[in-house]
Amino acid sequence: MGELRFLSKIEQVAAHLRAELAGGRWEGAMAGRLELAAELGINAKTVEEALRLLEKEGVLVPQGAGRRRLIAAAKEPVSTALKIRILLYERIDQGLPYQIDLLHRLREEGHAVTIAEKSLHELGMSVKQVAAFVKTHEADAWVVHGGSREILEWFAKWRTPTFAEFGRWAGLPLAALAVRKNPAMTAALRRLHELGHRRIVLLVREERRKPYPATFEQAFLDGLKELGITTGPYNLPDWGDDIEGFHRCLDSLFLHTPPTALILSEAHLFIAAEQHLARRGIVSPRDVSLVCGDPDIAFSWCQPAVSHIRWDSRPIVSRVVRWAGRVSRGVEDRRQRYVKAEFVEGGTIGPVAGRRLG
């Protein structure tokens, strides 16, 4: 056995930064020493020495005093084009702008990408049906959009690399990305509360409610409690998961104690609800305030402007493309990321009917 050697503090920091660089945390330019020192909780001088060590190794390229070091282009294994299948939440999602962009970007990288001929909903959101479908469709990698907890647990055990795009993946050993909507939800609830709303309802798909509320839905319930509003099935109703059930739920909600504010998790649910209510003479914001939990290109044409939660889809597309590139080079990548979101107030919310502000 050779002599045991302990790394110095500088070498330990350099090893940590080297691993982060290999994982693709930074691209182009390296973070500065002060930023890294604050993050690691160590002296900036130690960080500077570690960065100089990486310079000597050729990992970083100095640019002179006061300028950030560049990250040297690493010699990577030869990429191999992948056969990628995208398993959508439901068929309508193939028309989402970022899904179209993702298809183009992956194909530009040389991958053979196809949308699976059946969606999760067409497979009944059944683990058994999804497993049988996947096993009979050859692929080097899968991108699963909006998977339930049970379905993503199955993919986490499957031998083929899988990227969970949205869905209930928290804690699973999968590469994944989702939008962190909780702060935006809190902002929306506080604004509705300021406008006098107490009967606030969130309508989401079944796999977001069962077997227990997902993160966004739980943030909604917690937000109501923090505002002093008692929560129950009324606030997060169970309506099955089909078109008829959705419209029956709306009729039921507005039968006796109608909500003064309605939050719809997806754009097509928002549009369907707005149309359904308008046929009954219920319009926003006069009779009910409406908020959508997602952005949609159609909102830019709406008057009044739609109140919604907005997020940038470009990091999602870029992340999946980078993941596919690493998988094609035989590099394991199970990193999980979130994209920030914000609440955008539009003209579809207002004071509760009969309440004056100020």
Describe this entry's structure for a reader.
It is a single chain. With 358 residues, the protein is an alpha/beta fold. The chain folds into 3 domains: 9-71, Winged helix-like DNA-binding domain superfamily/Winged helix DNA-binding domain (Arc Repressor Mutant, subunit A); 83-179 and 313-340, Rossmann fold (3-Layer(aba) Sandwich), CATH 3.40.50; 182-310, 3-Layer(aba) Sandwich (Rossmann fold), CATH 3.40.50. The chain contains 12 helices and 12 strands. The protein has helices at residues 9-22, 33-40, 44-56, 97-108, 127-135, 149-157, 182-194, 206-209, 215-226, 243-253, 267-279, 314-328; strands at 60-61, 70-71, 83-87, 112-115, 141-145, 162-165, 175-180, 200-203, 261-264, 289-292, 307-311, 336-344. α6 links the parallel β5 and β6 (162-165). The radius of gyration is 24 Å and the shape is globular. The N and C termini lie far apart (79 Å).
Q: Give the C-alpha Rg.
A: 24 Å
* CATH class category label of the largest domain: Alpha Beta
Please give the order of strands in the largest beta sheet.
4-3-5-6-7-12-11-10-9-8
Helix coverage percent: 25-40%
Architecture per CATH nomenclature, i.e. the level-2 architecture of the largest domain: 3-Layer(aba) Sandwich
How many beta-strand elements? 12
For CATH, the homologous superfamily of the largest domain is named as Response regulator
The geometry reads as globular
CATH topology of the largest domain: Rossmann fold
Number of helices: 12
- Please indicate the percent range of residues in DSSP E strands (runs of 2 or more): 15-25%
Mean pLDDT: 91
Poorly predicted regions:
none
Structural class assignment: alpha/beta
Distance between the termini: 79 Å
